[in-house]
Design goal:
Oligomer: single chain
Bound molecules: pyridoxal-5'-phosphate
CATH topology of the largest domain: Aspartate Aminotransferase, domain 2
CATH class of the largest domain: Alpha Beta
Number of domains: 2
CATH architecture of the largest domain: 3-Layer(aba) Sandwich
Strand order of the largest sheet: 1-9-8-5-4-2-3
Strand content: 5-15%
Largest sheet: 7 strands, mixed
Distance between the termini: 50 Å
Number of helices: 16
Shape: globular
Length: about 400
């Protein structure tokens, strides 16, 4: 660790060295600097994939991927019912209709059978989510997509280098999206990246996220390389409508430094999760997310179904309080199913395009498995930079389990 920085929960290696290098250059933007490109090449190499395109978040990635997939106003995009709201917001920002597929009760990931039931003539894309770091069952989803000519976007914001039947997540769908937000395996504050083997998608997402500059390429994000052309008053710059979703060179430099340490970062999360899982092994009311055979999990967090209300008569909130009191930390509930967020129930989205949305309504009961599992989920923190701290927290959990073991079943 750099001696001038004392933040063991964040700085790991070359962050400050790289930041100083960026400060010493003229180019603080991806339009002319080299750090975005270095990050993209290193990221693509890590996945053994041809293209990586850096973005300023793991939501702008999803929006750009949907547009690049050819999603048009009124098309339908299927995403799971247990996920962050950003799958929904990216879909609506693409003027498309969010359609929700239910989840598998044990893995919490999208249920391919329900995906199949939700396919219509209007389905254009499926966003799969590797929830908490666990890949979904991708083979049947890819088969459904192939049969119906649908594009699959893997949302791996929470998942780094997990495998599914021996394949790396991120290399299975047509495109894959990652986030570098503060809590993710790799973080630069805010940021994201799309990977793909398809040069058409790579160029397309780069242009969509880069103001539609016509000289952007699948593997080139710098628009000002040829000064004589770019500075000429007769030069026409834009041939599609885009957004500015570029990552700054500072963020790219930090993300690169973090990527260099990804194996160590991953190991810490996986080890922390295993320590917590050991403590839960004989507890019949803390049931961890199931990891099927031939899957690996990168444990962005450890998701658990809490059945303590039914089995020991202790409500979710009370158990959390006891854990914190015993010295634990970082227990979160899962997000509401997206279609029951106020923005959706109050139908605020209708205003943006009444022609598309005026008849669209979502109701409780749409995805019953997700709705019943969501309130029971407890997410345990795995983001410890020191395994002894994870052990301390797991010991606190052990004390709480022991204390409640004396309680008579409800
Ligand atoms: C599964 C998933 N998708 C997308 C996002 C959005 O990423 P960002 O916060 O970088 O926009 C997140 C981050 O919270 C996420 O967890």
């Amino acid at each position: 660790m750099n001696k001038r920085l004392k933040n063991p929960s964040k700085y790991l290696g070359n962050e400050l060295t790289y930041l100083e290098k960026v400060l010493q250059t003229e180019s603080w933007s991806a339009t002319s600097g080299n750090w975005n490109q270095t990050l993209e090449k290193a990221f693509a190499k890590k996945f053994g994939i041809k293209y990586a395109v850096a973005f300023n978040s793991g939501t702008s990635t999803l929006h750009a991927a949907l547009v690049a997939a050819g999603v048009q106003p009124g098309d339908e995009v299927i995403s799971p019912a247990l996920t962050v709201f950003m799958n929904t917001s990216a879909t609506i920002h693409a003027n498309a209709i969010p359609v929700y597929a239910d989840i598998s009760r044990k893995t919490f990931t999208i249920d391919p059978a329900d995906v199949e039931r939700k396919i219509t003539q209007k389905t254009k894309a499926i966003i799969t989510v590797s929830l908490y770091g666990l890949p979904p069952n991708m083979d049947p989803i890819m088969a459904i997509a192939k049969k119906n000519n649908i594009i699959v976007i893997e949302d791996n914001a929470q998942c780094f280098l997990s495998t599914y039947n021996g394949r790396l997540t991120g290399t299975i769908g047509h495109m894959a999206s990652y986030s570098f937000e503060n809590t993710k395996h790799i973080s630069c504050g805010e940021g994201g990246i799309i990977i793909t083997d398809n040069p058409v998608y790579a160029e397309s997402v780069r242009k969509i996220g880069g103001h539609g500059f016509k000289n952007l390429k699948a593997d080139e994000g710098r628009v000002r390389l040829k000064q004589d052309i770019f500075q000429n008053p007769h030069y026409k710059r834009h041939d599609i409508l885009g957004w500015n979703y570029r990552l700054s060179e500072f963020n790219a430099a930090i993300a690169l430094a973090q990527l260099e340490k990804i194996e160590a970062l991953l190991e810490l999360r996986i080890k922390s999760a295993e320590i917590f899982k050991q403590v839960m092994a004989n507890c019949n009311y803390l049931i961890p997310q199931e990891v099927p055979d031939n899957y690996t999990h990168s444990y962005y967090t450890l998701g658990v179904v809490y059945e303590g209300e039914a089995r020991i008569g202790v409500p979710w909130e009370e158990f959390r309080k006891e854990y914190i009191k015993a010295g634990g930390d970082g227990v979160y509930g899962a997000w509401s199913v997206p279609y029951l967020e106020p923005v959706m129930t109050q139908r605020q989205f209708v205003e943006r395009c009444p022609a598309i949305y005026k008849t669209l309504r979502y109701r409780e009961g749409l995805c019953p498995v997700a709705e019943s599992v969501q309130p029971k989920i407890m997410q345990f923190k795995t983001n410890y930079r020191d395994i002894s701290l994870a052990k301390k927290k797991a010991a606190a959990l052990h004390r709480v389990i022991k204390k409640f073991s004396k309680k008579k079943p409800a």
